[in-house]
Task: structure prediction
Amino acid sequence: MWKRAREVDSYVTWRLYTTLKETGLLQKLQEKPWWEFADRDLARWVCDILVEKGYARRSGDVISVSSAPERPQITTMDAADLAPVVDRVMTLLPRALETGEKPNLFEEKAYYSKVAGSLVYKAIIEAAIEEMGLSRLSSEAVVADVFSRIGTSVMTLLEMTPARVIAVEPQPENIEVIKRTVRLSGQENRVSFVQASPEEMVLPEKVDVVFMANVIHWIMNPRLALVRARENLKEKGSVRIIQQVYEGTGLTVPFIHYFFGAVRPPPTKEELIRLIRDVNLKVERQLGSFGIVALRATL
Amino acid sequence: MSQPSLRAKQVKLNCKQCSEESIVAINREGLHAFICPYCGQPHLLLIDPNLGVRDFRQVSSVPARRPFDIARIRVKDESLIPVTLKPFWEMLKRGILPPNLEDGLAALQALGLLEIEGE
Result:
């Protein structure tokens, strides 16, 4: 999994650098502070990637570019598959930086499906399910998969646990895709659906686990979503969160998400933990490396 | 799936619903949609590399509108197929039509990945 993630990370960084250079934006980022760009968040994020990956130094609120990344070698299928998505994203970057127009490629369903259904994403979910012990749940257990998108997390939960799954997803067209995919696998009796945003979800029953894979940076009010998660838990239930955070691959892969509807950069690990504690959930276990954090929180 | 072929073959298809016979021209292997021109029943057929009909079955809907001929169904860019649907598409490429075929095709279509040639 890490090899694939590193290759995607290197490709995003290289493509970002070349796009900035070709459009003259690399020079601008060295001349004016990030907060003078129309999309400040995006400009700061771009600077942070270049600094974190070692291609620039911070000099007050501007950066000073020190070297250029070499074109990375792509050896894994998934990194190769994601490359066209990254290329598409980078065509929108200059306009977004300079005009502040929030890009949204969500309507380009085929690209969105790759972002939400990549092997890297599935591998992250598999690792989280394994590490967080979800595969030991009983067949009586119920897991709410919050913000299921096109169903990668639902299908992985079905494969790796015996539990029933409630898929919570705001977009009806995504629910249709998940329904079809679940039926294709013949497991429709294990899955039910709630069409709602994470902030508005009301589940038909209390659940053993609320599973949130990379949700925090995609939604307007993550605090409210965590309150809803808490409200829908059984007394001994838990919230399991797998989240890319603002470091390592968590800087580059969610950068792609921003162009598909994610509303902000991912939180830092500290921000994430504070958010969880703010809604009176107790962080019991946390694991993390290379920009991905897995957490278990209980009442 | 292979490159376009200059070969062509005419095959008789008997509608699984009304049994009426239609003659259609096939010149490519792969998955095709067929809508019976007599009763409108949609079908899917799988053509092998020798242009033989490997599978022909009625389905409730097909992602095509042409009633008088067959329409080839393909994926625009296989690299964009999500991991959850990849095994399904690999089965189709190997000439296997799984039981819940329509659901797989509907999911691919909803994601904007299917392309119907000739429409």
About this structure: The domain at 111-298 of chain A is CATH 3.40.50.150 (Rossmann fold). Chain A touches chain B at residues 80-81, 84-85, 108-114, 116-119, 121-122, 150-152, 155, 173, 176-177, 179-181, 183-184, 186 (CB under 8 Å).
